[in-house]
């Protein structure tokens, strides 16, 4: 089946242990790979402050998954995220109907290289901020 | 100079003062992408109250303003940006 390019960001309870979090991440990735999908990026963010309280919590762990999957997998992933009490929020976005793992990785690398190297780019953005 | 002339003059002058051409940040810098996960950047396009600023104020072009709006709404949903300042955590 044709793979589409998706991205899921979910927010986990701050009281969760690291093992539990990685186990849940593994479970989601298992769902994707079992159906013939491919996970490109799995990026757990460090503990972060939330903009507002979610279920009385002021902090949480975000995890970003970027993957290619057939369209019907999304309902499975959504169900999994809904059923887990420890997931406070989640959001799945389709980036496109075409999935190319290498292109995604290349784009990521070029972006990170750019943000790391040039100080002049930072200057440029700050000056345009003043204008706005 | 009649009073009318004077009025017309000031009107023209005033308009000139405010007619500064604003450039869309995202058009000027093609590397810059609008991403709902990048709350730091999105904050520039949100008022202190958390409202989305109009393109007239920020100078963003219509096309990018549209994607900016959805990005801000995604970010709000994920608790990356506040819906309103009254919900912001105070500690």
Report on the structure:
- The complex is a heterodimer of chains A (132) and B (91).
- Chain A is of the alpha+beta class and 132 residues long.
- In chain A, 43% of the residues lie in helices and 35% in strands.
- Chain A is built from four helices and five strands.
- With 91 residues, chain B is an all-alpha fold.
- Chain B has a single domain, classed as Ribosomal protein S18 (30s Ribosomal Protein S18, Irregular), CATH 4.10.640.
- Chain B is 48% helix and 0% strand.
- Chain B has helices spanning 3-18, 25-28, 39-42, 55-58, 62-77.
- The mean pLDDT of chain B is 83.
- Chain A binds chain B through residues 9, 11, 49-54, 58, 60, 62, 64, 88-89, 91, 93, 111, 114, 121, 124-125, 128-129, 131-132, and chain B through 22-23, 25, 28-29, 31-33, 37, 39, 44, 57-60, 74, 76-83, 87-89, 91.
What order do the helices and strands come in, and which of them pair?
The complex is a heterodimer of chains A (132) and B (91).
Chain A (H helix, E strand, L loop, with lengths): L3 E9 L5 H17 L3 E7 L3 E7 L2 E13 L3 H11 L3 E10 L4 H16 L2 H13 L1
Antiparallel strand pairs in A: 1-4, 1-5, 2-4, 3-4
Chain B lengths: L2 H16 L6 H4 L10 H4 L12 H4 L3 H16 L14
């Amino acid at each position: 089946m044709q793979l589409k390019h998706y991205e899921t960001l979910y927010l986990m309870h701050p009281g969760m242990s690291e093992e539990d979090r990685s186990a849940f991440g593994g479970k989601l990735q298992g769902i994707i790979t079992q159906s013939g999908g491919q996970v490109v990026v799995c990026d757990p963010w460090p503990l972060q402050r939330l903009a507002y309280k979610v279920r009385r919590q002021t902090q949480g762990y975000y995890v970003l998954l970027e993957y290619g999957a057939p369209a019907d997998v999304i309902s499975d992933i959504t169900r999994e995220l809904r059923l887990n009490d420890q997931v406070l929020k989640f959001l799945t976005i389709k980036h496109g109907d075409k999935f190319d793992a290498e292109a995604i990785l290349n784009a990521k690398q070029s972006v990170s290289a750019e943000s790391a190297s040039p100080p002049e780019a930072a200057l440029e953005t700050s000056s345009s901020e003043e204008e706005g | 100079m009649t009073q009318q002339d004077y009025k017309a003059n000031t009107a023209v002058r005033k308009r000139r003062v405010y007619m500064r051409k604003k450039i869309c940040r995202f058009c000027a810098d093609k590397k810059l992408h609008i991403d709902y996960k990048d709350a730091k950047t999105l904050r520039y396009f949100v008022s202190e109250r958390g409202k989305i600023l109009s393109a007239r104020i920020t100078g963003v072009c219509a096309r990018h303003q549209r994607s900016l709006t959805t990005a801000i709404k995604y970010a709000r949903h994920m608790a990356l940006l506040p819906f309103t300042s009254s919900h912001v955590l105070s500690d």
